[in-house]
């Protein structure tokens, strides 16, 4: 359902951190990644992003130590090369591995054609490479402080240079910034103890003194083999270290494979590397199966059901017993059908319709009775609760329940008797509601419609069940109009879909169009979800109310709204947000005004992200985006565990049960909210990969797009026809030097004063599409005379040979291309 539920507000950028120290390991890896190359000091400085005098001095000091230890050789002047790969490998090993590794296992210098660069070639699809992920300093000689000066919190990785630790139980406390060399290899979500060290620009800074809980010590990345040793470079750019894999833990992995590595040893010395073992090999990086499986592993998604879960599901009888039918309201004689996507296999909702003697209509919303089959205390229940949601990647579904249930027993397939839990409404043709009924039922679907087939009935008024579909469609329009009159938000996100061949390769990208058939089903599902929530809420008139699973959505924070209003004002749109009751009206008016304009997608997208994020909770706080006082999720128990929870609670209360303790239900709500967020991130990652894969076949082609994001590194362009997004680096914009004016959401030419801002239309050429990093690079179409282009190219070449610390503009300092997000790397979603 497309509603403004899962949203996150744009946030002010974090301050830009000071340049990270240049560690000895980082300098050494510059040589080990290029074992046959001669590197001069100036080349090292460019590779390592040196911008300060202190960093330059660090490099000189490290070169001196490495040369003294026999790891590099000075050739002439300031040119060096790798000297002894055996010594290098030994130096990089943690002590525990170094003691157990035989000399025969040490690596030898790989031949030139076995380097990663050579393996993947210079094709523009994969031409750009990330540097090694080290940024440690050797040791910490600061004196220990008293234990009372420590805080416990959760790690939120921001950039490869620093993280924020969110203190526990202190919502008003500032996050603590910790540089990655002082994180003790803690990862996203880990619980740590932080020693408060100082403050910088009024913000607290600290060091991790202890990792209390490691949530998931597994990393997905591409393995590089040097001799017999492996180094896994993480896919996630925020992971700030590589993982060392000794020979006996490689398990036949080959250079360039995409792997899942489990870290077995986290060293105390930040100058060493964590040691891991390859536990899954997905195959050569860049292939469809390797990359999609890697996404699944990166987000901790399951690859299969445990054997005991499959066995339990196969043992469930499909025979419906007569005594079970007798306990239910029988709808088998009433016209009933399902409307779903053409490729759907799990039909979890059906609609029934019949005209009553008083002239009104009875509309039944029938939902698969999953909890009849999935009982508390079973392996099916435990697995469903853990997964909490089905995950819809581009080319596959990772279901919450085994196929035997999701596509078989519980799926409301046509011409079969099915057990359901129903919300039945009496409505007139104007959509006015008179009566509601909730309870267990049995149905028999007469027809399975795809959305396209139902839409044909709506448009032509002809065909099987055309009258029934059109009656419900007219009602849905009126119910929807009333919902918006009460303050619902009209902003919607656009859903990107792919046409894939048998191997999963994208043949086309398009934006899913929502027509009346989609909106009709959506309105009746919204009605059922709302009325179930209201029914339980009103069962008890005094506090504490009966415990229920609610889907809540807070009103946006005033600060976020003001930020968005200032942004919209740059485009000439004024929002009056003083009256909280008029916020939805103002946003809906803006939605109407921007319709069809270049800035439509940018403003609508940012408006949605300004909203709070919808969550599951036992608190009946209402749903701002839908303008409902009470709202639940009842209509999709095949794919959402909170719907199963709502079914169980509703049945319990219908049978006269007492109030259920809220605390365990609230815990399950929090788990489901977290799993939903994780699933959404995995789905976005799979979409991004397929977009990059699709654009890899469009290298050199020209597209029209709009500016969808701006950073100091470059501007993001979203192609209009397929919503693929890539970056044009600021240093590559022709005609001038450009700088980011973040206060006014634009970049400005230093000399010509040209302004480029959000929503501007641009013609771009696809420059590269990197399957390994999931990035797309564009360059602007340049219509200037050739002699002007040639002169500028020569000037750029001359500037690129200068030390980076002496540039007089910020354009050339960025690396890489787009990586999904548009905001500063320091931003943190909260």
UniProtKB/TrEMBL annotation:
3'-5' exoribonuclease that releases 5'-nucleoside monophosphates and is involved in maturation of structured RNAs. It comes from the Bacteria. It comes from Hymenobacter antarcticus. NCBIfam families: 3_prime_RNase, RNase_R. InterPro entries: CSD2, NA-bd_OB-fold, RNase_B_OB_dom, RNase_II/R, RNase_II/R_CS, RNase_II/RNase_R, RNase_R, RNR_Ribonuclease. SUPFAM superfamilies: Nucleic acid-binding proteins. It is found in: Cytoplasm. Residues 700-781 form the S1 motif domain. This is Ribonuclease R. Belongs to the RNR ribonuclease family. RNase R subfamily. The keyword Glycoprotein does not apply. Residues 811-820 have a biased composition (Gly residues). The keyword RNA-binding applies. Keywords: Cytoplasm, Exonuclease, Hydrolase, Nuclease, RNA-binding. Its EC number is 3.1.13.1. Residues 789-810 have a biased composition (Basic and acidic residues). Residues 1-24, 789-830 are annotated as: Disordered. Transmembrane segments: none annotated. Pfam families: CSD2, OB_RNB, RNB, S1. It catalyses: Exonucleolytic cleavage in the 3'- to 5'-direction to yield nucleoside 5'-phosphates.
